[in-house]
Write a structure and sequence with these properties.
It contains 21 helices and three strands. The protein is mainly α. It has two domains: 147 residues, no CATH class; 332 residues, Neurolysin, domain 3 (Orthogonal Bundle), CATH 1.10.1370.30. The protein has a three-stranded mixed sheet, with helices on both faces.
């Protein structure tokens, strides 16, 4: 390897370390930090983020990048070194447009907003959070202005999470999906819901915790390089490929909440743990995009965790853990209950058939807020109106409505569409995996996940961020992003469960 490439890796490694330190502080803020530490933590995160930005956008790094480019021009375009230079170049040119002052202010504002959001959600009081949210959306509009001209003010934000995608692309996909999903949900509603009362009994937190960890250990989540903790909103964070942590939250009167959150976050974490060691401490030690990342979490949560073969394997064990609650409930009844389709208030607990409708709602609101066409103070009312329009239900309070997600308090505007896109990509992978592993269902019934994880490791995980999402999808599937496998999956699964023709 050339000396210029080594020098570039040294410089980006130092930036990686600063960002990892910020992630440790952010993890602590959501898991362990006392509320009184908010002001001090905001200052610490602002300092670290500003240092990382200044170092990454320095002339020194730019010169190192140019020098490394000269060496990688002689290498295969798909080599780790060539891809590293390509990714660093893209991020360097983007970040050079953003001021260090904005980065520090954004970090400070979102750190404080997170604490305000937690309290506002607990008290179901949007009014106390509104001033922070106004500040965040103004900062996000200011950020978009660094990238003028753009087709839409939302585009620069979406590009941070889904490189190359624009708001118009998402809108076209959602417009097509909405028609099919609304029709499916209506057909299911006409068939009548299964009984899920057994899911709403008392399930002690400690037993839920133990069962969830037992499952994800079998999936392949490495607890020697990770851990699970509690937080107000489940998330995954990585401090490096050998320290990837997950969190969940527990509802003792609703069994699926923590379990499927644990499966979901483990999917994210196994992706990060699967990045090949050669990419450590570089910008390539990350997911290709948020949609690709979500394809992993949704695959393990839904395509595996809500499947019939999965529960053939694990339901008996779950009955052992909760004998009084589930001992007299049949596997068939339980399977139908955890796959019940019914419009619901909370996105993270939504069923597979209605989930994307929650995302479409948030996408529309984010666009309007970024356009400055929707006053923040009106957001709870508009949110409730949209919930009624999309799902036929109205939240009883702000906590179950506009305050339910952590994302806006963290400034993650442009993130939500990637959840729905991840559902689509997951089903594209799943059809290929079914062809590659013909006895996959039998393996899942036997609790054997090694071959499935190996396929994901080989085709997706090991590459980290080497390939753009559209490129990765085309390399693996031979086509671009498609909704058809996802729609086939929904129609087949719920057609069988609900007896639809």
């Amino acid at each position: 390897m050339g000396t210029h490439i080594e020098n570039l890796k040294k410089l980006v490694g130092e930036v990686y370390d600063l960002n990892a330190a910020s992630s440790v502080l952010a993890w602590d803020q959501q898991v362990l930090m006392p509320p009184g530490g908010a002001e001090g933590r905001a200052a610490q995160l602002a300092t670290l983020s500003s240092l990382a930005h200044t170092k990454f956008t320095s002339n020194e790094l730019g010169e190192a990048l140019d020098a490394a480019q000269g060496e990688t021009d002689k290498l295969d375009a798909d080599s780790d070194e060539a891809r590293l230079v390509s990714v660093v170049r893209r991020e360097y040119e983007k970040q050079r447009k953003v001021t260090a002052e904005w980065v520090a202010e954004y970090s400070r504002a979102t750190s404080l907003a997170h604490q305000t959001w937690q309290k506002a959600k607990a008290e179901s009081d949007f009014g106390s959070f509104a001033p922070k949210l106004k500040e965040i959306f103004q900062l996000r509009r200011d950020y978009a202005d660094f990238f003028k001209p753009y087709d839409h003010v939302y585009d620069p934000l979406l590009d941070d999470f889904e490189p190359g995608m624009k708001a118009a692309d998402v809108q076209a996909i959602f417009d097509d999906l909405r028609t099919h999903q609304v029709a499916l949900v209506q057909a299911i509603a006409d068939a009548g819901p299964p009984d899920d009362s057994m899911l709403h009994l008392h399930y002690p937190e400690a037993d839920q915790w133990a069962f969830g960890e037992e499952v994800v250990r079998q999936f392949g989540y490495d607890f020697d390089r990770g851990r699970q903790d509690k937080s107000a909103h489940p998330f995954t964070t990585s401090f490096g490929i050998d320290d990837v942590r997950i969190t969940t939250r527990f509802l003792e009167d609703y069994l699926p909440s923590a379990l499927f959150a644990t499966l979901h976050e483990a999917g994210h974490a196994m992706y990060e743990q699967g990045v090949k060691p050669e990419l450590a401490r570089t910008p390539l030690a990350d997911g290709s995009s948020l949609a690709i990342h979500e394809s992993q979490s949704r695959l393990w949560e839904n395509l595996v965790g809500r499947s019939w073969p999965f529960w053939v394997r694990f339901y008996g064990r779950l009955q052992e853990v909760f004998p009084s609650q589930l001992g007299q409930v049949s596997l068939d009844d339980f399977y139908h209950a955890v796959n019940k389709v019914e419009p619901s208030l909370i996105r993270v607990e939504a069923d597979e058939a209605t989930y994307n409708l929650h995302i479409m709602l948030r996408f529309e609101l984010e666009k309007a807020l970024m356009e400055d066409n929707l006053p923040v103070d009106d957001l709870p009312t508009i949110w409730n109106d949209k919930m009624q329009e999309y799902l036929g239900i109205t939240p009883p309070d702000d906590a179950k409505g506009v305050l339910q997600d952590v994302h806006w308090s963290a400034g993650l505007v442009g993130y939500f569409p990637t959840y729905a896109l991840g559902n689509l990509v997951a089903c594209q992978w799943w059809e290929l995996i079914g062809d590659a592993i013909p006895d996959l269902e039998k393996q899942i019934e036997a609790g054997q996940f090694d071959e499935l994880l190996a396929w994901l490791r080989t085709n997706i995980h090991q590459h980290g961020r080497k390939f753009k999402p559209t490129e990765l999808i085309e390399r693996i599937t031979g086509e671009g992003l498609s909704a058809e496998p996802y729609l086939r999956y929904l129609r087949t699964k719920f057609g069988e469960i609900y007896g639809l023709s």
